[in-house]
Amino acid sequence: MYRDCSLRRQVNGQVVLLAASSLLAETKESYPGISVYPHGYVAFARTDCGDIYAFDANSVDAEGRAAIVIFPGDFYDDPITADRADMISKRVAGSLMEFLEKYADNKVDETPKHF
Question: Please, what's the largest Cα pairwise distance for the chain?
Fold first, then answer.
């Protein structure tokens, strides 16, 4: 389903779901994605402030659904440890479906942890 989407609608003027063609670039070529990707996080959305939403491949439930976390955009530590990535991440949804429901209702948590 998601690979066929090119969504650009924003929630509260902030959250942008990335086009499928942009996922790898956001994850592997931009911060903070480039720092957290090696530890199992794959970006799929961002805010206008540079924060990213990512799938957390480390917390997949029995049905194969990954939790969704947010990372602050001003986080540029590279390289980092898996423990540091986990500490900086903030869980915002239990699955992509839950995230999209919040997105549709303009209830996405847009506040990452800041250190």
Answer: 36
Which are the contacts of 57, defined by CB distance < 8 A and separation ≥ 6?
Answer: 40, 41, 42, 66
Tokens matching residue 80: 């980092």
Cβ-Cβ contacts under 8 Å for 60 (sequence gap 6 or more):
66, 67
Cα 79 to Cα 34: distance, rounded to the nearest angstrom: 9
Tens of pLDDT, residues 58-106: 999 999 999 999 999 887 666 789 999 999 999 999 999 999 999 889 8
**Looking at residue 66, what is its pLDDT?**
96
